[in-house]
Amino acid sequence: MRHAALDAVQEQIARCNRCGFCQAACPIYSITGREAATARGHNELVRRVLEGDLALTADMQPSFAECLLCRACTAHCFPALPTDRVVTAARSAFNRRRLAGAVEERVMRVVLAEPGRMARLVRLAYFGKRSGALRALRLLRWLPWLPKGLAQADAMMPVPPRSFLRERVEPLNLPAKGPRGTATYFVGCGMNFGFPDAAQDSLQLLAGCGYGVRVADNICCGLPAYTHGHLDLARDLARANLRRLADADIVVTDCASCSSFLKYYAELLSGDPAAEGAAAFAARARDLCEVIAPEMLGGARWPGAVTYHQPCHLGRYQGLAARPGELLQAVSGLEFRPLAEADWCCGAAGTYVVSQYEMSMGVLERKMTNVRAALRPAQGRPEWNRGAAGAPTVVTSCPACLAQLAYGARRHGVAVAVRHLSQILRP
After folding, report:
1. Neighbours of 376 (CB within 10 A)
2. What are the two backbone dihedrals, phi and then psi, of residue 174, each rounded to the nearest 5 degrees?
3. Are strands 173-174 and 212-215 parallel, antiparallel or unpaired?
4. Which of 127, 130, 297, 316 places its Cα 20 to 30 Å from the Cα of 8?
């Protein structure tokens, strides 16, 4: 049985020279040691399905489900194959064969396309955390169909904010204070619901750097649907955002995952009537760190040691690996500590931490070991207390990474604060 999504990646798979360099870079292979976890393994399985040597069977699904889509393999691949595209194509093919895939797509369509519905769902989850009801999920961890990460939802969930970003700032339209023009701020779901304080700092940072700010009336960028293999839903969400943001000069977001996917709209909608508009839009999409320059940060101050974890969607997907470090080192009083394997995935990967909890924790452990080493107090300096003034801080620019790193700090007893990049750069 043919599937259009697999046919679309056939040319990419043909370019794999099966060298195996992807093994050394793959966080999942470092844990499992299984060839099927590597990019070479994924490419080979799909190639053999396309050639008719294998049928697409349920026993193949775990190897595709375990992939983080971090693109570490692409960075070590001579032809730079975007194997994440192969994996999402395979997930799409499995969705077409499974009732669970159709149900998941329907639920995501109902929630992601309507921010009001998503807000109600998040409020329900936060009520569960405040009331202690989420702790009851631990008692159900023996159920075979319950994702293991869901049983840990209470521990993993960040402290519920007092209100969401849209409730605080909408409508907002700040005129430009300088010659930089107006930046249309794309509200990422994770920033809106999980880290609205940091999102407000992003808005203030943009305004303080001379930009006019307009908060967009956008919906979900579509990345969650895409990574789960619901490609048609991702395209529908992209088209809706293109209509809502057609008049924006530049679209800026402080979520690295959102900015990477907004820039992917042109490829996502290739061959679609909206493709031309998608290409023009993608050219106007920016990550927050792209529109802020070190010379704009004259009033920024931060006491203490800081290290930076690079989100996969910022470095490997957008080629912006160096930019956050350059900005951080321009902040007065800040002691920048390089992080070993800064681009090693933290294991969050959106909902991956829920569906693949044990694998996610294995990836996170390596990250927290490096964070502890980077922020170890200098000789003779007393140990810091997490949250205190001048506490060592790990910085990142993706809400999923923020939540994962904060959970990792609690889980492994690493005395660090976790902050979004805008919280450090804001004057």
Report:
1. 13
2. -95, 125
3. antiparallel
4. 316
Cβ pair 220, 237 in contact under 8 A: yes
pLDDT tens digits for range 213-260: 999 999 999 999 999 999 999 999 999 999 999 999 999 999 999 999
Strand order in the sheet with 212-215: 173-174, 212-215, 182-185, 250-253, 285-287
Closest CA to 345 of 84, 88, 13: 84
| Residues 174-206 pLDDT 10s | 776 777 889 999 999 999 999 999 999 999 999
Q: What is the mean pLDDT of residues 357-378?
A: 92
In whole angstroms, what is the distance from residue 425 CA to residue 324 CA? Answer: 10
pTM of whole model > 0.85? yes
Residues 248 and 239: their CA atoms lie apart, in Å, by 15
Spatial neighbors of 34 by CB under 8 A, at least 6 apart, are: 41, 63
Residue 227 makes CB contacts below 8 A (sequence gap 6+) with: 69, 88, 91, 349, 350
Tokens read off for 130: 């405040």
Domain residue ranges in the chain: 4-95, 98-292, 294-425
Q: Give the pair of three-digit tokens for residue 252.
A: 């800026």
The CA R_g of the chain, rounded to the nearest whole Å, is 21
pLDDT tens profile 112-128? 999 899 999 999 999 98
Question: Taking phi first (over 0 means left), then psi (-120 to 50 degrees means alpha), and beta for anything else, what does residue 20 get?
Answer: left
Specify which residues 250 forms β-bridges with: 183
Rounded Cα–Cα distance for residues 1 and 52 (Å): 9
DSSP, residue by residue, 20-39: -THHHH-HHHHHH--GGGSH
Alpha helices (H) in 76-114, listed in sequence order: 83-97, 99-112
